Input
Amino acid sequence: MCVGLSARVVSVEDGTAVIDAEGAKRSVSADLLEDLEPGDYVMVHAGVAIAKITDDDENESKEVLESI
Output
């Protein structure tokens, strides 16, 4: 089973995004996504931002993880 992590983008520079996942900040590859901007939400897997997600998706992900 693969698990992705949802996170908010803090900054983007040269194909790398700094994300904030519940207060934990880390750098991930942003090469797969176009037009990524600070404030966007992304799904991250294995150190790569693989998809933009909506605020609703982010909230649903948090609810599911909290219920586990």
